[in-house]
Design goal:
The chain is of the alpha/beta class and 298 residues long. It has 2 domains: 91 residues, no CATH class; 167 residues, Diaminopimelate Epimerase, Chain A, domain 1. Helix content is 52%, strand content 9%. Strands 1-2-3-4-5 form a 5-stranded mixed beta sheet, sandwiched between helices. Helix 4 runs antiparallel to helix 5.
């Protein structure tokens, strides 16, 4: 027959093991959300925001479907643009679940496209599997830095998109349209009077870009739910252990929490210890610019 102390110790050990399993499951679920996230995005899930490094030259294809010759052409243009004091980045995704303009703005600001003292960056984001506003793929979102609204107002950017990219896309030649759009934007950046002349010829034009609504972040909601579940489980198991051992509840809860946090640190180091081994050694490409969500979509 088991002694009472032995039974209490076994129950305590079981409770500790149960909470440990809950926390390990929580960690696995949180990391699993990241590991299973489609890098190019889907209609039901946003892609992770890529990091533009010096090695990418500001051109990133997360889909792996854009021809290398076209990517090299864009990288060559990007180097030329940067040599003249500007930055124009291009990022390719497949699709996304949230607002394409808001997401593109996050890509812009997270990477600091453009130079901090001038905010003169431009970003083209193409969603290759998402139909554009005219029903043809791909969807194009263009974002401009806050410091170049004079040389590249939204009305001028929209006119460039409608006269270069949109008709080329309708004919299945979106790559040619993107290059033409890119070239006009770069020319306007270098020569601000182009915008002044265009605005004098289009006095009735108004910006047609709608402010994007903030979308719910399903990933964040899921993590919050898991954390709440772990918190409730911790309180319940602490109460059970305290009652079984006839201890003060708060003392037991804090003691268990300390042990569980220690276990969580060990597990997190074990699961994420090699995560940095594959990172590029090159530094960030962006110069610290930002955008208030200027630009448009076609």
């Amino acid at each position: 027959m088991l002694r009472p102390n032995t039974m209490h110790n076994r129950r305590y050990t079981f409770a500790v093991a149960l909470v440990a399993l809950v926390l390990v499951a929580l960690l696995a679920a949180c990391t699993g959300v990241q590991n299973t996230q489609e890098p190019a995005g889907t209609a039901k899930q946003d892609p992770p925001i890529p990091q533009l490094t010096q090695a990418t030259h500001g051109i990133v294809d997360t889909t792996g479907t854009v021809p290398q010759s076209f990517l090299e052409q864009l990288r060559s243009r990007s180097d030329d643009v940067q040599a003249h004091g500007f930055q124009i980045a291009v990022v390719f995704f497949n699709d996304l679940a949230s607002d394409p303009h808001q997401f593109a703005t996050q890509v812009f600001n997270n990477n600091g496209i453009g130079y901090k003292d001038k905010n003169n960056g431009v970003l083209f984001v193409l969603y290759l599997q998402k139909p554009g506003t005219d029903g043809h793929i791909p969807w194009l979102t263009y974002i401009t830095g806050g410091g170049i609204s004079g040389s590249l107002p939204d009305t001028l950017m929209d006119d460039y998109a409608q006269t270069t990219f949109v008709p080329a896309r309708a004919q299945g030649n979106w790559q040619d349209g993107l290059v033409a759009f890119y070239s006009q934007v770069y020319a306007a950046e270098q020569d601000p009077p182009i915008a002044q002349e265009w605005q004098s010829q289009h006095p009735q034009s108004t910006t047609g870009v709608n402010s994007p609504d903030n979308s719910n972040n399903l990933k964040t909601i899921g993590i919050v739910i898991l954390v709440c579940f772990a918190f409730v489980a911790w309180l319940l198991i602490s109460a059970v252990v305290a009652a079984r051992r006839r201890e003060n509840f708060f003392y037991t809860a804090l003691r268990l929490l300390g042990r569980f946090l220690f276990l969580l640190v060990i597990v997190s180091r074990f699961t994420g210890g090699g995560s940095g081994s594959g990172r590029r050694s090159s530094g960030p490409w962006g110069g610290g610019g930002s955008s208030p969500s200027s630009g448009g979509d076609v």
